[in-house]
């Protein structure tokens, strides 16, 4: 695990050895975590890895069985959700179907006893912040998925949370809308200077939006760091495979490819496909292999190949590269430095 | 296994060809399916009801006791005679009390079943709620007469708990009291509440089951304490179920004539009035006029419920 500059001021959210189990299942198994104020923090992991439970622990929907949770220095164990200065954007948006869009957004203000005129004004403001001005009188059922998502966002932001929690915020949207929302969320977070914590199983979402990513597996955090670091320097086999599906090399194999003598990762896009007779780049290791499978993926072609020694490698080469057939003999070049040691593996 | 296995085609037959026609012409299928129930509902059920209700514009000849088949408003206006108006107000009052009590008792039970009970407990819950419906109605009413009697179980239990005085004080109250529980409006309301409670629990439970748990979490997340969540989210969303239950409890009480005969005071309720008018008195027009009242009351009730937004969540 990489040591990273610890947040200076009081952390927005701090977990110390937090444990939460459901029956025999340890959903969260001793998680330590520190999220800096104003940070866009992603919790990434497959389903059942404990990331959503961690989010629910921050929100107060779950209470830890052991360990300690602080929000801006305040101990929150035992505090119900309605006493916490954090708000959640739910995966299914959880808009109140019997209230209009305006009333939905104003709900948190109404609960706090804000007068009607004032809360209507604030709700209008929040709706224009998410580009839904003029939709106040609509019913949630009359909105599209993307619009509902924005209403949920406005409803959470209007009560000025110290931390905004987002549970798979883009999961239900189609690709085009998702990309749009990604940059919008990022812009909103920067403009408001708020701490955003979001849960996702989509590695590209986590890498493109977050300032830091925590990768979860089996109730634990296996790596935390900036997206580049998590992607370039996966600490364990799990991270290497889950984030960007890297090749995992055993010590012996790594050494043969010019890496250190320990378990290593090798990103498919780092591997070069050498044309017959082409010169070998300086310092690169050369691998001769036979193609086992090819899949076309738009910008790249993924070529799976196996060497005579039984090493299986997957390379992502530009789709424009000359057609390679399954069963063909090819030559890969692995540039120096592409084979990276996994610090969490022996 | 070979992938190019030659399967025989399904056998042709009359039914298969008939299916072809119905699949191609969906309307025809809908029509065929709807004709029997529509005939039953439209002709047999609603038709006979309207024929009966239409009698209310006729009147009865005071001397011969025969029906005068000439349209008049006299019979309908008779409902507003003080004695008849009394019957109507009494019946509506009892029905409202029963409905209110049913709603208050049913809600927590339904809430527990909908939100906390596991599959096994839920099965037991359905059984427990439905079981009373399977035993004889008369047995249950007589059972309650015994429970409510002066020397009955309720009186005995109250005395044991040292609440005998409180029971006496309650019975001494005007209107709700009486010589004993078994001949008071209180006893009548209790018996009705027992009888109709399942009809309130089940729709309320169904409505609560449809409230997504995330909505309740979201309300708490936005700062609402549980009581406020209940008032602003859970209750409005469960309201269609409460109204559906109220339709049952209200109309069942409005029309019943057996419970008031066995338990309760000598003052008549609507069901008893209709029963005597169309039976011993042979005054079909006035009986029909009385029968219009529950329909009107329910229409008013539903209009009010809609006004207050009870169906907004539908």
Automatic annotation (TrEMBL), chain A:
Reply yes or no: does the keyword Transcription regulation apply: no
Recorded hits in SUPFAM superfamilies, A to Z, give: MOP-like, P-loop containing nucleoside triphosphate hydrolases
SMART domains named in the record: AAA (SM00382)
Q: List, alphabetically, the InterPro entries matched.
A: AAA+_ATPase, ABC_SmlMolc_Importer, ABC_transporter-like_ATP-bd, ABC_transporter-like_CS, Mo/tungstate-bd_C_term_dom, P-loop_NTPase, Transp-assoc_OB_typ2
- What are the protein's UniProt keywords? ATP-binding, Nucleotide-binding, Transport
Residues annotated as domain ABC transporter: 13-243
Q: A GO molecular function for this record?
A: ATP binding
Q: Which PROSITE patterns match?
A: ABC_TRANSPORTER_1, ABC_TRANSPORTER_2
Which family is annotated?
Belongs to the ABC transporter superfamily.
Please identify the protein, giving its name as recorded: Spermidine/putrescine transport system ATP-binding protein
Q: What organism does the record attribute this protein to?
A: Ancylobacter polymorphus
From TrEMBL, chain B:
Among its keywords, does the record have Transmembrane helix?
A: yes
Q: Which keywords does the record carry? A: Cell membrane, Membrane, Transmembrane, Transmembrane helix, Transport
- Protein location: Cell membrane
Q: Which residues form the ABC transmembrane type-1 domain?
A: 88-305
Question: Does the record carry Transmembrane helix as a key word?
Answer: yes
Bilayer topology? Multi-pass membrane protein
**Alphabetical list of Pfam families matching this protein:** BPD_transp_1
What is the official name of this protein in its record? Answer: Spermidine/putrescine transport system permease protein
Originating organism: Ancylobacter polymorphus
